[in-house]
Input
Amino acid sequence: MKKVKRLLTIAMATVMVTASLVGCGGKESGDSAKGDKIKVGVCLYKFDDTYISTVRQNLEKLQSENSDKVEFTFYDGKGDQATQNDSIDTILQKDVDLLLVNLVDTGAAPTVIDKIKAAEKPVVLFNREPSADSIKAYDKAIFVGTNAKEAGVMQGEIISKLWDKDSKAIDKNGDGVLQYVMLKGEPDNPEAVARTQYSVSTLNDKGIKTEELALQVCNWDQALAQNATEAWFSKFGEKIEAVIANNDGMAQGAIAALQAQGYNNGDAAKTIPVVGVDATAAAQDLISKGFMVGSVLQDAEGMAKALYETGMNLAAGKSAIEGTSYKFDDTGISVRIPYQPYIK
Output
């Protein structure tokens, strides 16, 4: 009898231990399910850039719509590559699955990619395009951005259509030449370089002669552009027949300076055409009022969607474009988001 009781006790203990193990296993399984959420470190070149902040808002929207799948943590580079490098170091020390990097300095790409490669984390670089070779150095890196040339071409087309419609309204001195000033983003930024070059070459290709009165690097900044335009207006006055800005922030600065001189307030006879890039909400408002001639839409929502879909694929160990509508361009590592002209 004692032997039977002893066997029953052992059997019950075995059942309790097994149940305990199953319970532990169930808990671990639950933790693993939580761990399925992809953790993403998002490095932005600076939070207060209008276009980049719109991309961020769209990523946050995607996170709210896919809260069981992804978790974004945003880091402000504050326009300083050293600050961004520190953020990347911090991210790599954490348990992240993916990085999205909007470089402050595209020339820092090799160093940044080497850091991420050493940690064996996938990365999507976006918006500010580094050299293709730096991206190709790591098989878990891609680029998502625009074709920089497109924006410049569209800016040129917007102005050329205006010229073709009524050149006399623009060509104030009647010399058959478009005298313009150029507000450039950054000295060596590929987007700034391409927008500057192709906005003018497109005008020339369409048979419009041009003369550059002045060019100023304003680092995409509205206040710097306003100061530059004020100085130009004091020097050139009505000789300025168009203002070409690499982005809408600088275009806004130019318009503020012109409005202070009594221009671009709705009177067509006292309006100097200003064209930008991004089609921000502020620019769209200026265009609707006739204060600004046009812009080029850089699709922030489309950018965020591409970052999410390609990034989630990379985090899952798949090809970035698998199961998506995206294609790589001839570099084999870049996905392009098309621009669109925006006029009244």
User: Anything to note?
Assistant: The chain has two domains: 34-146+301-343, 149-297. The mean pLDDT is 91.
